[in-house]
Design a protein that fits this description.
The chain is mainly alpha-helical. The protein has helices at residues 11-22, 29-40, 42-60, 70-80, 86-97, 100-131, 135-142; strands at residues 155-159, 166-170, 185-187.
């Protein structure tokens, strides 16, 4: 079906004119063309009948007068209602009046911004924790040491002797000076199982 000719009434135009036709506000040639379209179109005819019955029911209802003081009570209720901040009203109004595509774009941008802030926060936390470690732990982490960091005081070591390994206690120095003069020792790995070796022949 091609586009309607000049002066011809289609369903879209009829939906805007049916109410005016029922109220008697439409007359002349346009009213005649609309009535012809309603007679030929079952969809528009159903809309016309439904709207006409609704208007008849509303016109037959009795008018209810408000009670005395209703206007003042309504005004007091509106004035006593909590007022939302202007920025919140602006956001809610924009969200309700914006189409779905723009709302999805805004939600995606907010999610991306939240992920970026979270990533920066985690990175800053890790850098702060790494800088707070003692010097020997930072050196161990930088060299990729397999042993987990040991406490700064009273560190346990194993000293290799001829008969069997002997656990000894070693107090580390505050700096790295004099490391060449230390005994030949190594740290006990967390998964190491100590097996005593008998010195008997």
């Amino acid at each position: 079906m091609g586009p309607p000719r000049r002066g011809e009434v289609n369903c879209r135009r009829a939906s805007h004119l049916i109410s005016a036709l029922i109220d008697g506000e439409l007359c002349g040639a346009e009213a005649l063309r609309l009535r012809e379209h309603i007679e030929q179109c079952p969809v528009c005819r159903a809309d016309y009948e439904t709207l006409r019955e609704t208007k008849q029911l509303l016109s037959g209802m009795a008018v209810v007068e408000p009670r005395p003081g209703f206007e003042q009570d309504l005004l007091n209720y509106v004035l006593s209602a909590p007022c939302e901040p202007a920025w919140k009203r602006a956001i809610v109004g924009w969200w309700q009046t914006t189409d779905r595509r723009n709302r999805m774009r805004a939600a995606a941008a907010f999610a991306a911004l939240s992920l970026a802030v979270l990533a920066l926060s985690v990175r800053g936390t890790l850098q702060t924790a790494s800088s707070a470690l003692p010097s020997y732990e930072r050196l161990s982490m930088a060299n990729g040491a397999w042993a987990s960091p040991l406490p700064g005081r009273d560190v346990g070591f194993v000293h290799e002797t001829v008969d069997r390994p002997q656990p000894v206690r070693y107090q580390p120095s505050q700096g790295l000076c004099g490391a060449d003069s230390m005994p030949d020792i190594r740290t006990i790995p967390p998964w190491h199982t100590y097996l005593p070796v008998s010195s008997a022949p």
